[in-house]
Amino acid sequence: MLTSTSTLFQRAIMKVFMFSTRAFVISAVIFVRTAVGLDRLPSTCEPIDGDCPDDCRAAGFSGILNFVASFHISPNYPAIQEQAERAETYIKSQGQVQSVDNPAAGLHTSMFYFCCHTLPEKIKIKETLASMTWYPIPVHYDSFACNLDHNNITIYLHGLPSNQTNLFTWAANVESTLHAAGIPVNHPRKSKFHMTLARVGQDYPVDNVVSYFLHNAQYWDFGNAVITEFRIDNDTFRAHTDVAKL
Known about the structure:
The chain is 36% helix and 24% strand. The chain is an alpha+beta fold and 246 residues long. A four-stranded antiparallel β-sheet has the order 2-7-6-5, covered by helices on one side. A two-stranded antiparallel ribbon has the order 1-3. The protein starts with a helix and ends in an 8-residue tail after the last strand.
């Protein structure tokens, strides 16, 4: 009888301990989320940031060079630029905006982020991409979304294509081409391809604005483009001009 009573007492103590531990963990999580502002982050945003690490050495890389392959929309697609300007006007009317991309000169899509490379690697990457086989990519910027910066402070609002298949196929081609040349891919493409319009803070009504654009998509189609080239620094890399592949 003594053994049975002792066992029941131990089980009761264990339950109290487990309950207290869970309560402590939950309280700690709530405290941390509140402290860093995660509880205020919008729920509709992609929680993936395409940018490179702030500190390459701390991230475990020997190289420190970051560079981007970019498709420049401005000034070659005036219809997209005009719609982007209208969208940015609406975005600014809904709350405080940190910055917008100039539709006349700044609209672009970052095609690939090259992170934490050495100078010899960067030179070899450019040489390899110059001979990579790829074809023009039609893109329809027909949707709207957002993503979080890696600091969980800045939020990006952007137009983007709802169909990303050809773009991720292109990114996979870049990665396999670099691997075949013996070049490390330090930052594989994971985040969605997009055209940044604005940067806002946590106090901006992101969820409401994203919902507005998505529920009024018939008025906010940004238009079509064809990616025939991309740039890294001052170098231009062009697609093969086989129109049959379009």
